[in-house]
Amino acid sequence: MSKVPMKRVFICGLRKDRKRMLETLQRTGVVEISVEKPEDDYLETMDVIPQKAAFDKNANLAEAAINVLDEYAPDTEGGFLKSLEGPKDMDLDTYYAESVNSGAYMEAVSRILALQKQIAEDKAAIPKCETRIESLKPWMNFDLPLDFQGTKDAAAFVGSLPKQVSLEEIYQGFAEFAPSVDNIDASVISTSDEMTCIFAVCLKQDAEAVENALKQMNFAKAQLCSMVPREQVAELEQEIRDANADIEKCAEEIRGFANMREKIKFAADFFTMRADKYEVLSHLEQTRKTFFINGFVPSRYAGELEKKITENFDAVVEITEPAETDDVPVALSNGVLSDPMETVVESYSLPGKGEIDPSRIVACFYYIFFGMMLSDAGYGLLLCLGCGYVLLKVKNLKPGMKKMMKLFFYSGISTIFWGLMFGSFFGDAVNVIATTFLHRPDIKMTPLWFEPVSEPMRLLVFAFGFGIVHIFTGLFIKLYQLLKAGQVKDAIYDVVFWIMFVGGAIVYALTMPMITGMLNLSFTLGSTVATASAVIAIVGAIGVVLTGGRESKNWIKRLMKGAYSAYGVTSYLSDILSYSRLLALGLATGVIAQVFNKMGSMLGATWYGLLIFLAVFIVGHILNLGINVLGSYVHTNRLQFVEFFGKFYDGGGRPFEPFTENTKYYKVKEDK
User: Does 163 share its domain with 202?
Assistant: First the structure.
């Protein structure tokens, strides 16, 4: 339906033009270049790994510098909406002018990263200084360096004991563990619950005995320090002040580069483009004077591409139809309403060879299902306003984000429709406000169709009806694809018999009063329809049994496999039941909204009751909207992926990946 037709393209050019031609192809962005190893020994490829690595490094450095600028000098213009923007357009003349200055821009990048490194080093030094200061605090009253070991005749010991002890207990320890030493002078410098800092002096000849006694008391020497502790602390505090000042100085210098932000962004994109170009260059088949490009181009661009290349270069361009054996890439192109469905299809898989693009058919059901699941006109209105504002305000939205905004915008319109049909506007907010605060119970919002909370079975029947139509649409698409491929027998065996089997069974069920009564249907089909549908279902079932295992030559195996295939009719029942989620999520949205309205209005029509109502209303409905939009999106996708795609769609297509500008900030404009 909307798969973009592809052409094979072959280009033969002069080797001296290869870089300029690749730049042209990259800016044009319509050619996927095939990466193939040369089959002829006469052809060669270039080793450009060092150059590509250098460009990748520069691009990464520029990106890192942008992150540093965003940290120290954030760009506040545009706010949230700016984060949704895609690359800005840049004309070719500006691109060439800016590319000349890329080296200067990288000098700014180097300086920014050097400043950031200096800040990181300063920040790492501060905790070290603070830790050292903390360890010196118990020694602030000590007037000697902590590495003091005594004089010519005396030995000194500076350290701590691992608990709180008194001076008397210290002397008792010396008396116990060094009884032969008489001349020991000890003092307590500071004490706490965790340790006691002490200073002990003795004669040189008694040093060994005193040291052994201290070891018995679990003495630990103080960290070596050649300065008096309070002087060391003062020096460390100065280092912290200097580090903080240096951090602020570096940060201020970084902020001074804020006016270079766009230039650095250009540098990041410029080197990214060059790295991509050299990646392609490394795979090109070349001779001493020529080079060759093989690839694919969308048919609508083929003529313009040939004209552009031949007019600007001495080259030969050959456009041909892809061979049957070619692995042709897949690109999708749809109209306004079905364009957002491309993201849904691509998230599952692109259509394979011989398959149609289901985007337009998916769109027909997607918006209906999403709207039925959310089913509140107020929530739909908020979706439309929010997404519409983004679409109008941000002109160069990222392509994927633009499709997503359009998807939710159209889904919001569907939600408004179903909300009006079911009489839900922020739940029953209209009725609650009119009754509680306006004392006008006569003001009510009535559904245009019916209220699901009051008639859930009615909605369930319509959900099943939509599901049956959805599933059979998938079967008819499969029938179309098989007939188009000339596989008439497969179409009859794998589709027609199943349509007869399942369709006949469904119609026959509607002739049974028990079924129609359970579903609250106002009709029961007659006996003539019952007979006809039963015959059709039986013929379909027999056809499935006889052909379901046709790949087996043994008739017994064939019938057994066919019978097993017929058992697959139960999967159709489970598929149809899956559409009950349309009822479940629709009811959940409405009931939760009504609960929040009820909670908010419990205090009645007082001034504080009104404030409580507004608070509960805003918070509650925001939560309900967020949860149920997510639920509607997930479950609508599931109905497409499992129940719908499972009937006809295998996927497996390879995405079209043109050689283009994979840039983040700028796109160089080139005629397509």
Answer: yes
Residue 563 included in any domain: yes
Q: What is the pLDDT of residue 647?
A: 93
**CA distance linking residue 45 with residue 25, whole number of Å:** 19
Cβ partners under 8 Å of residue 568, min gap 6? none
Same domain, 469 and 557: yes
Token pair of 183, please? 């001349």
Q: In this structure, are 377 and 322 located in the same domain?
A: no
Please indicate, yes or no, whether residues 338 and 443 belong to a single structural domain of this protein. Answer: yes
Residue 264 CB coordination number (10 Å): 24
Question: Where is the domain boundary, 173, 203, 222?
Answer: 222
Q: H/E/C letters for each residue in 583-648?
A: HHHHHHHHHHHHHHHHHHCCCCCCHHHHHHHHHHHHHHHHHHHHHHHHHHHHHHHHHHHHHHHHHC
Token readout for 334 is 């749809």
* Domain residue limits at 490: 454-579
Look-up of token digits 């052809």: 43
Residues 490, 483 contacting (CB under 8 angstroms): no
Q: Are residues 496 and 419 in the same domain?
A: no
List CB contacts of 208: < 8 A, sequence separation 6 or more.
none
Same domain, 295 and 353: no
Provide the domain count of the chain: 4
CA gap 15, 635 in Å, rounded = 54
φ, ψ at 369 (rounded to 5°) = -65, -45
Largest CA distance in the chain: 126
Q: What residues of the chain score a pLDDT lower than 50?
A: 1, 672
Q: How far is CA 635 from the centre of its chain?
A: 19
446-485 tens-digit pLDDT: 999 999 999 999 999 999 999 999 999 999 999 999 999 9
